């Protein structure tokens, strides 16, 4: 109800959020706050996004059951699980090995078998599986790499939190039409920064 009142109107998105138990993705010390509309720490200086932001990003992706999705930044796996409920397959990359392993365990526990996880640098995308219908970034970045733009299909959508003037963050929607990128601002956000490299 809270999400509907906040402007989430897509019934598939609302249904996916309803079906995925958020408490499964949260450390025990924060379990009592699992269903509050707030971001929570998950270790390694990372967070699980607040449900409203997950819902906005998911709704803006306009996912169908035919879509193949690339997620850059698995984190807890919560956003991954929502995407898995709505799409054909999700390819998700995480640079922190312990987070990726933990997320995979949770996703398997929830029997979300249409997810493929990988430990790697999300900035490079996933060349072997390109092109993708949708791409989502879950960490704030200054610019979309040409590598990522290359990996999205024509008429594909990329959702990403972008850093503006080194401080402000805006969630943006990028649509690739005839190899040109059209962008639109969605809302102000606050995400952890996008970093390169792998933490084993």
Description:
The mean pLDDT is 94. The protein has a seven-stranded mixed beta sheet. Strand 7 and strand 8 (168-177) form a beta hairpin. The longest helix has 13 residues, at 97-109. The radius of gyration is 15 Å and the shape is globular. The protein is an alpha/beta fold. It has six helices and nine strands, in the order H-H-E-E-H-E-H-E-H-E-E-H-E-E-E. It is 26% helix and 30% strand. The termini are far apart. It has helices at 2-5, 11-19, 51-61, 78-86, 97-109, 146-150, and strands at residues 40-43, 46-48, 68-72, 89-94, 115-119, 132-137, 152-164, 168-177, 180-188.
Spatial strand arrangement across the major sheet: 5-4-3-6-7-8-9
Can you count the helices? Answer: 6
Characterize the overall form. globular
Number of extended strands: 9
Approximately how much helix is present in the residues? 25-40%
Features:
200 residues; alpha/beta; seven-stranded mixed beta sheet; two-stranded antiparallel ribbon; 6 helices; globular
